[in-house]
Description:
The chain is of the alpha+beta class. It has three helices and three strands, in the order βαββαα. β1 (about 15), α1 (about 25-30) and β2 form a beta-alpha-beta unit. The chain starts with 15 loop residues before the first strand and ends with a helix. The model has no long low-confidence stretch (mean pLDDT about 90). InterPro entries: CBS_dom, CBS_dom_sf, Diverse_CBS-Domain.
Amino acid sequence: MIDVPVSSVMTKPTPSVPPETSIVEAASRLRQPNTPALVVCNTEKTIIGVVTESDIVAVVAECGGDRSIESFMSRPVMTTTPSTPVRRAADQMREAE
């Protein structure tokens, strides 16, 4: 499993949203089956952040629900290629911590 490419274990397709997406819309999208996170992309389709259900719960509990996801998305986002071995991707994630 460790030497297989990332493409064999990644979620496809990964849903993406623009940074101005509301908390309500993001929460609705995250309720869809097999949607653990939303990738936030700018107009050039560059990944600029990631939002999860736990991100939304934390923000709503602290500040209410009238913000866009751009204000609390996780960033920067570490990316890799689909052909990267899972072992190398795991090493990259550990190094980024």
